[in-house]
Write a structure and sequence with these properties.
Blueprint lengths: L1 E4 L3 H6 L1 H13 L3 E3 L9 H5 L3 H14 L5 E4 L2 H14 L6 H10 E3 H8 L8 E8 L3 H7 L3 H8 L2 E6 L14 H4 L1 H16 L5 E4 L2 H13 L5 E4 H5 L4
Parallel strand pairs: 1-2, 1-3, 3-4, 5-6, 5-7, 7-8
Helix pairs in contact: 5-6, 5-8, 11-12
Length: 239
């Protein structure tokens, strides 16, 4: 099956290896992957900051960049959730309303795509150690993703997955929230990290690099022995 690769801003600029590993997973699952180098942002940052008109301009370009009939797959529940749940509002009463609905229908976060569309859950990955999983808000609340990543991780040889308390609680990033309300944001990251440490985990895993970046910032600043990893990078480990 054919797949269009959507690489969100954080992955493009800060975590390109996650994007490359996603291609490896998709190809191993039998997909034909294409990438449009003209793609940019989906418009979520502007939308969340209240700049709806500016968001519409960026999102209109997204519609053009991802025209076609292929599946659109991204390593971000946040961006995928935005496209699915907000494009209808953004393009309401415009000439792009049908295109927006079509793009939203074709958009998938990588873990749900692998399980529900590609029907592939064992990549022969291996990673030794105990890990715990953080349910990113975008994936959980906007895409309904809960069991899927855990199912994929259960197939990783050597990995012991343990649940932490408040695994569904926000990490405190929230885009501009972490800038506007820094003390609260840092406190939420501290709570998340402590919950992970209480399990004895070596790795803290999630589906969104934005969450992982925020959590890792707290970890690094406080010299904590805990490693963050995107689920995609875990599934591409050891082969």
């Amino acid at each position: 099956m054919k797949v269009q690769l959507f690489i969100p801003c954080f992955v493009d600029q800060l975590f390109p290896q996650t994007g490359m590993n996603m291609v490896k997973l998709l190809e191993k699952a039998g997909c034909e992957v294409s990438y449009n180098p003209k793609q940019t942002c989906c418009g979520q940052p502007a939308y969340n900051a209240g700049y709806i008109e500016e968001c519409r301009d960026v999102s209109t370009k997204f519609l053009k960049d991802f025209s076609g009939t292929e599946y659109i797959v991204s390593p971000s529940g946040s961006c995928t959730g935005f496209i699915r749940n907000s494009f209808e509002e953004i393009f309401d009463n415009t000439t792009h309303v049908k295109d927006a609905a079509n793009v939203a229908f074709r958009s998938f976060e990588i873990t749900e795509f692998l399980l529900n569309i590609a029907k592939y859950d064992d990549f022969g990955a291996s990673l030794a150690g105990k890990a715990t999983y953080h349910d990113a808000c975008g994936a959980l609340r906007e895409c309904g993703i809960k069991a899927g990543p855990r199912q994929l991780l259960s197939k990783v040889k050597g990995l012991e997955l343990v649940e932490m308390k408040e695994c569904e609680t926000c990490c405190g990033f929230g885009g501009t929230f972490s800038v506007k309300f820094e003390p609260i944001s840092v406190g939420m990251a501290q709570t998340k990290v402590q919950s992970a440490l209480d399990t004895g985990a070596k790795y803290l895993l999630s589906t969104d690099v934005s969450c992982l970046m925020h959590i890792d910032g707290y970890i690094r600043k406080n010299n904590i022995d805990l490693k963050t990893m995107h689920v995609v990078d875990v599934l591409a480990s050891g082969w």
